[in-house]
Amino acid sequence: MAVLERIRKKGGLVASIVGLALLAFVMGDLLSSGSSIFNPDYSLAKIDGEEIPFPLYQQKLSRLESIVKQNTRKSSLDASTLESLRDQTWNEILKEHIMQKEYNELGLAVNSNELYDMVQGEKIHPTVERLFKNPETGKADKNAILQFLKNLDNSNGKSQKNYWLFVESTLMKDRILAKYGNLIKKSFFVTKNEMENDFLEKNKKVDFKYIVQNFKSIPDSTIEITENDISNYYEKHKKDFEQKVSRDIEYVAFTVKASSKDRKNARKWVLNQKTNLKNSKNDKQYISLNSDENFDKKFHKKGELNKKIDSLMFAKEIGFVTDVYQDGQNYKISKISDIKFLPDTVKARHILIKVDAKTDIAKANSMADSLKNLIKKGQNFAKLAKKFSEDKGSGAKGGDLGWFKEGQMVKAFNDACFEGKKGDMTIVESQFGVHLIELQDKGKEVKKVQIATLTKKIMASDETREKEYQKASRFQGMNQDGESFTNAVKKEKLSKRIANNIKENDKKISGLESPRELVRWIYKAEINTVSPVFEFGNKFVVALLTEIKEEGYANIEQVKNEIESKIRKEKKSKILMEKVNKELANVKSLEELSKKLDTKVENSKNISFSSRNAGKMGYEPKIVALATNLEKEKLSKTIEGNNGIFVVFVTKITDAKLKEDYKDDKKKLVKTRTSRVDYQVYKTLKESVEIEDNRSKFF
């Protein structure tokens, strides 16, 4: 005790010593490794040689996190949201650096007058309009905007000010990008010739017959492919084998599952709690403290409970506890906590006040309370709902929600309606904002029970988990290279998984939960190296790095299988082409040809040049193009398609009559082409820039 007391009294000194020790450790590590907080190791990326420091990225990310927390009213964000925000921040930095050069060269900018116009001028931006929309007019309320801007200078408005600066920044980025996009879009035009061709491609239709000699009719094993064939094909088509940096792996997963002993222990634990649950005076608190599932406040009618206990719970009294029963991967016991006669449905109406940048939760509650007082003094609920409710669907109907069943609404709203009395007017908060609810009517009351269920998930114990880890660890320790890894997988009859083309910043690998650490490992490892044991959820994973693909052209061994497949198709095509041409020279009809080749004549009807496929033949653009441009009742020459060698015979042509006016068609075509401008231009610019992405060093 004396030692503890001395530590308490000298807590400040101890903290200082620990802090200095940590600083010395960090600085020592930096100095010994030759690193510096200012050196390139702290560079997030390089864009055309310009460094993007990690602190800049972190600053932008922190700002975005604060905005999201404020908007969602959460003090912390889950891993999935954080991951999304990281990507969003990276893409924002990337876009700023790539596009700013374009803006500078063209002299594009957004001035303060334009910002004013977007916020409170004649051309208010849709984002601002949505934030400050007047329910009565459907347009932005300029007075509300002015009042909001004046209040930003208040001492308690710091978070709102930060949010508004973020909004303004977003508006300006949106405006300058729109200017840039419009410069390109305005250069688009469509000639009369193009319109006529487009019209004919869509509206000229043909019916045709065809025969096909499928590539699959020749067994792969009959096609001889030499090393020389492969080498020649590779050199001739080298550009087809360009690749980005990626990695291929094989891995085995040792899955942790509950043992029979774990199951018995889980059941025994639940059984031992039966007396405690029965004697509990506060079921909700007991379940909250002891169960793997939350207390269910809902009152259930007959037929809604688990079939194993449903009839029983409506035949017993309050306090009755069931025997242990299994529900999926859980053992449970259930107690009748309460019995009530409640309606199946209720009728209600409400007024919703949303919480956003201009209206915080306190203000929303105050407004709802004011509306409640007005209604009590005789004001018409429906008229106030139409004027003030931000639930547009029900607001237009005077707030009327009609009749609804229990569980249809969010919990707070549901409880206020089903536990209240007819005529009650209550104010509740939900994720949608603040609701002023009037309970108008209640349906027929039926017997309902509230059940307190103690749940124990059937999970692997630490002992079972350790055994599975030992299996993985033994496998990893005894197999340190590709050959031994592969042999051991076969010998132990393990299930091997393959993951190809893993990029350096990938966060997902099929079949694994949050495998980011494995991705980082494979970019540090050498080929044919076996990984340490990784733990991902309920799996222990050991991986083998099988392929390292660098920027440039894939080497011939990496694409050998692909090349063989293409050569095989070429050789089959040549064989079938010669076969069909030989017979085609001596026949006058498709039917004769089909008999010679012992194949069927197939039909395709109502096909246009723009058709994606042609019936049974599937996706065959070459065949569609040939058929829609072939003379009627004339046998075509042989043509290679995706699936085989075809011969086509057109039986009917339905010509499209050209129009005098293509005004509407022209608008649609221009709209279709310009709709891709923003995405395609940025994609092209991005591809022209040299990007060195170092994010994987940090997370």
What would you note in describing this structure?
There is one protein chain. The protein has 699 residues and is an alpha+beta fold. It folds into six domains: 2-35; 112-185, no CATH class; 205-241 and 559-654, no CATH class; 245-257 and 461-550, Chitinase A, domain 3; 260-342, no CATH class; 345-443, Chitinase A, domain 3 (Roll). It contains 26 helices and 21 strands. The strands form six sheets. A four-stranded antiparallel sheet has the order 18-3-20-19, with helices on both faces. Strands 14-5-16-15 form a four-stranded antiparallel sheet. It has a four-stranded antiparallel sheet with strand order 6-13-8-7. Strand 1 (43-47) and strand 2 form a beta hairpin. Helix 3 (54-72) packs across helix 4 and helix 10 (227-236) crosses helix 22 (560-584). The two termini are 43 Å apart. The relative contact order is 0.13. The model is unreliable at 1-40 (pLDDT under 50).
